[in-house]
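Tokens in:
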């Protein structure tokens, strides 16, 4: 099957020098360079040398105001690939992720993600990660990564920059209404570092409350206020 489209990988960063190098090397080793138009690192004013490190490894560096929604929108605005692939700096997609994405697009899937696993044997987190295979908006999150045809991204309006947190979930919720969103049957591996820092049960509880508040109609400022009070910046 000929896959003529190309992918722009967009990675928002803020002080990710400890992770970005390994990720960029992994992406190159586990994809076909013919399918990857560019890897864009959109940096929100890191103080640890993230941009210079990423540049030495071949990434295209873009600076942006801090905030993942703003950073990802900026990357999408300047991307030149047909498909946009949004990825966190501590998340590793499956081998040949580019082929899986382009095959999905070839079969008229205009947006989607992968399933997710954590890089831990913690049974509690493995239990919640299992639900990422279910194709429902309540089971979505940014750690699962996101691919979307560039034209659809622009028609959708992109990420809502009013959201300091929850920007991925809010955007994907809109995509469920306007596109044939798919969950591909392979898994990304994402870091459990935040759960290890704050406690798995505590963090999952607070994330659950944020989901509930969103369902009840709380706005982006109220969600962020709860997050800042109960979790951390």
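Residues out:
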């Amino acid at each position: 099957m000929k896959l003529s489209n190309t992918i722009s990988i967009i990675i928002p960063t803020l002080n990710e020098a400890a992770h970005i190098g390994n990720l960029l090397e992994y992406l190159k080793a586990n994809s076909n360079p013919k399918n990857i138009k560019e890897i864009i690192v959109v940096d929100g004013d890191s103080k640890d040398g993230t941009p210079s490190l990423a540049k030495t490894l071949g990434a295209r560096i873009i600076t942006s105001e801090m905030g993942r929604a703003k950073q990802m929108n900026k990357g999408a605005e300047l991307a030149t690939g047909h498909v946009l692939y949004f990825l966190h700096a501590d998340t590793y997609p499956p081998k040949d992720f580019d082929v899986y994405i382009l095959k999905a697009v070839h079969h008229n899937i205009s947006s989607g993600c992968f399933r997710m696993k954590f890089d831990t044997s913690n049974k509690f987190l493995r239990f919640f990660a299992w639900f990422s295979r279910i194709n429902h908006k309540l089971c979505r999150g940014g750690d699962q990564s996101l691919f979307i045809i560039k034209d659809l991204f622009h028609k959708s309006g992109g990420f809502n920059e009013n959201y300091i947190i929850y920007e991925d979930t809010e955007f994907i919720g809109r995509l469920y209404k306007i596109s044939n969103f798919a969950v591909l049957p392979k898994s990304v591996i994402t870091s459990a570092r935040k759960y290890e820092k704050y406690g798995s049960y505590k963090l999952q509880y607070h994330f659950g409350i944020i989901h509930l508040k969103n369902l009840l109609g709380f706005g982006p400022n109220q969600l962020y206020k709860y997050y800042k009070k109960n979790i951390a910046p």
